[in-house]
Amino acid sequence: MPELPEEPAARHKALAAEIAEHNQRYHGDDDPIISDAEFDALQQELDALEAEHPELADGTTSGIGAAPSGAFAEVEHPLPMLSLNKALTADEVAEFLTRVRRFLKLPEDAGLTFTAEPKIDGLSLSLRYENGALAVAATRGDGRAGENVTKNVAFVEAIPQKLKGKPPAVFEVRGEVYMTHADFAALNARLVEEGKRPVANPRNAAAGSLRQVEPQKTADRPLQFFAYGWGEASELPAETQSGMMEALKAYGLPVNDLMHRCETIEALLAAYSEIEEKRAALPYDIDGMVYKIDRLDLQRRLGERERRPRWAVAHKFAAERAITVLEGIEIQVGRTGSLTPVARLAPITVGGVVVKNATLHNADEIARLDVRIGDTVEIQRAGDVIPQVVRVLTDKRPAGSAPYVFPEKCPVCGSKVAAELNPRTGKPDVVRRCTGGLVCDAQVLARLKHFVSRAAFDIEGLGAKQIAAFHADGLIRTPADIFTLAKRDAAKPEDERIVAREGYGETSVRNLFDAIESRRTIALRRLIYALGIRRVGEISSRVLALHFGTYDAFRKGMGALAKAAADRAAQTEPDAEGEAVRTDLVAIDGLGAVVADALENFFSESHNVDALDALAGELTIEPEVARTVDSAIAGKAVVFTGSLERMTRDEAKARAEALGARVVGTISKKTDIVVAGPGAGSKLAKAEALGLTVWDEDAWLAVAQEES
């Protein structure tokens, strides 16, 4: 695979990091700092990059929501709770329809029916009913697992504890918990009267109300619920999305009565316009429309990609904009040394939220806008994610203003700032980085903050603020220091212990140390993600964990990988084991050469290896076990080559993965099955030479359809 130019790779990484942060703030902390529109703009830019450069689609941005907080018991969803791809324009809706037809091999004039329903701005919830009675209620969390809020849901009148009629024996209902505008206003009035901080918006109010540690407090905050779908079910009462919604309604579940059935793109867009006009008058917040393929058999064929269904899309409402003054530009240094400029703004209310900061992305964006301190600027936000500066009103520019000069030295450690060069193209990376590495306190601190983030170790009471304070005082410099903190603290004189610090008492210190102890046992996927390796996000961490299974196998594989890289750099024969590890990683769908390179770079640095080994010595690392799928190809490595005539390649891959297979891109002795269509060429020849099992399309379809 040819080396990817650094410019798109770097931009992809910067976008991935920004998106991950805002997902955490929105879903995990209920404290977003940017609007939905701004978030969607970031996600769209990233999706476009991944479409142009598939090697970049390593799963770093497909994480859904945020990991469970630890305040509630964790519930693993039998089927993942998916997120949605987004469309911001009519053209993008048309592209969605085109993708669906292409995937299913349908001609343009073939009829397709969709449902169109308002996208409620609330908190996603799963309700598992067994024999008609509510058994478990769980938040979406990170899509894989959420928080058990069953006791809290008992106080939500809109959610029935027992379904009407004859529902399936096992029926997992999915929907959105929300708060009406009137109830939100009443809640804030009460909070202000009690001298407490008001809540930013109804979505945050709903999320915070449902996630009260004391369930009875949920009863004091009126919540509503709309069912929009389902997860695990012993049987389905209908064969269409619209039919399922009618069934949910018959079972006594509230469903949105503004749903439309549409057979053309014109009808979808008309429904969008109709609901957008009604938006201001609705008693609850919506931020767009959701379009879904109506037929469930087509939904199943379309499947999902990176935890987003191919059969649905969210058509978001337009972004909201406002004019304000840019009062300053602050440079933030990330854990990989990236320098991100943040605009400090004169506070302005946009869509009911006070905005004080906006992203400027990078030096190139500053130059493109020619934005200067003191400029009057237009900012854009949509929903609840990071605002961005979209335009400078140059006619209002103050006299004597000067172009902004991006720093050449790190504002934290003073090291040189450089844009990495691609060795082939010679073009500089769009992201500029501090070259100080671990000399730079900002990078060390950012890595530690990432380490304790919710999707990583998620240590209760040891968040970003506490990490910053302990780091500043030299108490925590490496991840391993977290797990030796209690022992080191006990060895100090009493007046130098943590208990003597402002804001700490015996109970809070004991709770902190207990929380740290509770994280000495950690899942392998969380550990890999916590390392903060560039281009290795939550999904690719899970893929790596599933591939290696155990920490020992992962550590051994990474050592071999680094050894082979060192051998190549020294122009000697590369370590054979390491080359085999790299070949396997490159072949895994969702990893590829980009992730393999990132792992090589990380494990080639001795300080990273030393830090990991010290950390591992403090932990019990649980192996990663794949979810059991009962099929003839579960656990097998499958390669598709040549053309398929009755199923697109994308659909074939999706079906194989749903049946528990690992779809790989290259053929080796470890390949179990090669599905070869016309034009298979060299891959087929290699498979035959290796004596591998080769299927034609008929054999593949026999297995795929039998397991449907």
Question: Could you name the key traits of this structure?
Answer:
D-amino Acid Aminotransferase, Chain A, domain 1; 26 strands; OB fold (Dihydrolipoamide Acetyltransferase, E2P); alpha+beta; disordered N terminus
Structure description:
With 708 residues, the chain is an alpha+beta fold. It has five domains: 1-65 and 319-436, OB fold (Dihydrolipoamide Acetyltransferase, E2P) (Beta Barrel), CATH 2.40.50; 74-316, DNA ligase/mRNA capping enzyme (D-amino Acid Aminotransferase, Chain A, domain 1), CATH 3.30.470; 459-518, no CATH class; 523-622, DNA polymerase, domain 1, CATH 1.10.150; 637-706, BRCT domain (Rossmann fold), CATH 3.40.50. It is built from 23 helices and 26 strands. Strands 2-13-10-3-9 form a five-stranded mixed beta sheet, sandwiched between helices. The protein is globular. It starts with 5 loop residues before the first helix and ends with a helix. The relative contact order is 0.10. Residues 1-6, 26-30 and 58-70 have low confidence and may be disordered.
